[in-house]
Amino acid sequence: MVIRMKLVALDSSGLVASVAVVEDDILAAEYTIQYKKTHSQTLLPMLNEIRNMIDLDFDSVDAFAVAAGPGSFTGLRIGSATAKGLAFATGKPIVAVPTVDGLAYNLYGTDKIVCPIMDARRNQVYTGIYTFVEKDGISCLDIIKRQCAVPFAEIARELNALGREVIFLGDGVPVFREHMKELMQVPYLFAPAHMNRQRAASIAALGSCYFARGMVVSGEEYAPEYLRLSQAERERNEQIHIRAMERDDVACISRLEEETFSMPWSEDAFLEMITKKDARYYVAELGTKIVGGCGVLMIAGEGNITNVVVEKKERNRGIGTKMLQYLIEDGEKNGLHAYTLEVRASNAAAIHLYEKLGFHSEGIRPNFYEKPPEDAVIMWKR
Q: Residue 367: which region, alpha, beta or left (left: phi > 0; alpha: psi -120 to 50)?
């Protein structure tokens, strides 16, 4: 089936700078370069060159697709600013394509496992695990593991467990090639030069599929997905301290719950829980200020996470992640080997956070929540 549309795509998530135009099922133009110049010097001139070469009228474009991250923080911001500027000027939407998904789409139709790896520094990779499955006669990208930032050893273990041949691609390949020799137990090979780095054509092709499914945002709404905090943000977050919840903390945590949830826990509920031998409750402090809290009930080696709350103005800086990482690490010391929680089905931000920490959806509790009524997604980390 031919998808009738025209997309302009941008990818500046790594060393590669790439611009492409796809109209219907035809790649009308692609300009890709990997050289020493910065994306601020290359991306707009490349776009302008394509515009002149194919007489591109931006008003005729249906949407602007962009590699949404992860990747170079500076590169993502340049791509984001360019896409947002075009969207604002034309009133057209943005299609946010996850960078690692776009890389995997370079190998469209392969029967092997696809594992892009981008060098994320600090001994980590931006990666994911993909395959292509046939649906209604069309080969479709199937996400086995969503894009994430992890040590290479972790993704190697998961690939070995799948027991299938793997194709690696991305700028992390030369960095981690020796690690592959040591850790990979299944056959693997590397994508060739014309497929092993970011390409705007793949962002455009996959973006066309997302556009057809209505997966668009406005220029105002769009923001890149970094997956990991910048160095400055990490240094700032080092000021965050996690400790056990005490009686004097309960009033503050209860207030945060009231500001956040339609059915908050009371002070009495928290006071009861922090005295239980089979429960652990924590607070996050920024300096001397409490900015979040979380808790877990421990039952037969499994942890039921009952509460996660972060002060509204302190969100999007990793506090929830840091609290949950502390909770899980502390739980493992106390013999916990699995964790579960419920989350509103509409709470995409929370679900994304839990997925980054290794939780997976395993069911639905219909009408679990009230005010308003809504299903709960049951998530597990095993």
A: left
Q: What is the DSSP code string of 282-351?
A: EEEEETTEEEEEEEEEEETTEEEEEEEEE-GGG-SSSHHHHHHHHHHHHHHHTT--EEEEEEETT-HHHH
Q: Is the peptide bond before 187 cis (omega within 30 degrees of 0)?
A: no
Burial of 185 (0-12, 13-18, 19+ CB in 10 A): exposed
Any idea how long the chain is?
A: 382
d(CA 254, CA 267): 6
> Which secondary-structure segment (H or E) carries 243?
strand 240-244
- Mean pLDDT computed over every residue of the chain: 93
Q: Which amino acid is at 216?
A: V
Q: Note the pLDDT of residue 239.
A: 81
Q: How far apart, in whole angstroms, are the C-alpha atoms of residue 231 and residue 236?
A: 9
Per-residue buried b or exposed e for 246-274, using 16+ beta carbons within 10 Å of the residue's own CB? eeebbebbbebbeeeeeebbebeebeebb
In terms of DSSP bridges, do strands 360-369 and 240-244 run parallel, antiparallel, or are they unpaired?
unpaired
- The pTM score is 0.64
User: What is the number of alpha carbons within 13 Å of residue 283 lying toward its C-beta?
Assistant: 23
Parallel/antiparallel/unpaired status of strands 279-286 and 289-299? antiparallel
What are the tokens at 157? 């273990």
Q: What are 65's two structure tokens?
A: 């697709």
Give the separation between CA 108 and CA 323, rounded to whole angstroms: 39
Model pLDDT for residues 144-191, shown as the tens digit of each residue: 999 999 999 999 999 999 999 999 999 999 999 999 999 999 999 999
Site of tokens 């041949």: 165
Output the pLDDT for position 1. 47
Q: Are strands 94-97 and 63-67 parallel, antiparallel or unpaired?
A: parallel
Contact 204, 31 (CB under 8 A): no
Distance of alpha carbon 271 from the chain centroid:
36
**Is there a contact between 202 and 22 (Cβ–Cβ < 8 Å)?**
no
CA distances from 250 to 268, 296, 305, 306, 308 (A): 9, 15, 17, 15, 14
What single-letter amino acid sits at 313? K
Closest listed residue to residue 202, CA positions, set 162, 170, 179: 170
